[in-house]
Design a protein that fits this description.
Elements (H helix, E strand, L loop, with lengths): L9 E6 L6 H11 L5 E4 H5 L11 E8 L2 E8 L1 H7 L2 H10 L4 E5 L4 H10 L4 E8 L2 H10 L7 H5 L13 E4 L5 H14 L5 H8 L1
Parallel strand pairs: 1-5, 1-6, 2-5, 6-7
Antiparallel strand pairs: 3-4
Helix pairs in contact: 1-8
Length: about 200
Amino acid sequence: MRVKGNEMSKIIFLNGCGSSGKSSIAKAIQHESPELWLTFGVDTFIDMLPVTKEESYLTFIPGKNNRGPTMHVALQPAGQELFKTLPLVAEILADKGMNLIIDEVLLDEECLKTYAKYLKKYTVYYIGVFCDLSVMQERERSRQDRCIGLSNDQIDRVHQGVLNSYDFKVDTSMTSPLDAARSILSFVLITPMPKAFISLEISD
């Protein structure tokens, strides 16, 4: 049975495709909230990788489907070992009383349940960040730091099954990151005990 979350630590867990707007929402939450929040997630670890040896951790495999180009990220053994520590690092930061905004791309149920296991002591708001594929594809084309085809590869998996058991959802197709952040913060304010991660523990 889940213990009530640590009053000193809250976690906003954003799940969605690359280019769906998660990072922009996280920055807007930091700006809008009177509380202090740290952003943390998969990109935190990607930024740690040695540029000249990145392929030792992950490789990008281009492809194509009826919606356009795809880009699949395949983790190498070193990458698998590195990225599976994400939930543990999140727990360590929360243990120190820090509020976290986790920016993730969950592609399987096991990864979500691992987070639920490590963060079961805390109040976690599991937020789905949705966006039309055409909008994400346009963002990939217009921005210099995006892999073309990443969202197309992820969209069929990132919100499927148990992964879609969110406490709250936002859609950035027509909503700005600032408005999405404000709606999330409003939800957090009126929801002292979110249920998504509790349900995961019960069903496990």
